[in-house]
Amino acid sequence: MKKSIVTFTAVLFFIAAFATGNVEKNIERSFQSEFPGATHVSWIKVDNSDLYAVRFVYGREAMMAYFDADGDYLAIVKSILEEDLPLQVKRSISRINPSGALATTEQISMMGETSYLVQFRERGHKKVYQIGEDGSIKLTRIKEVINSNR
Question: I want to staple 71 with a disulfide (CB 3.0 to 4.6 A). Which of 13, 26, 55, 80 is the partner?
Answer without folding.
Answer: 26
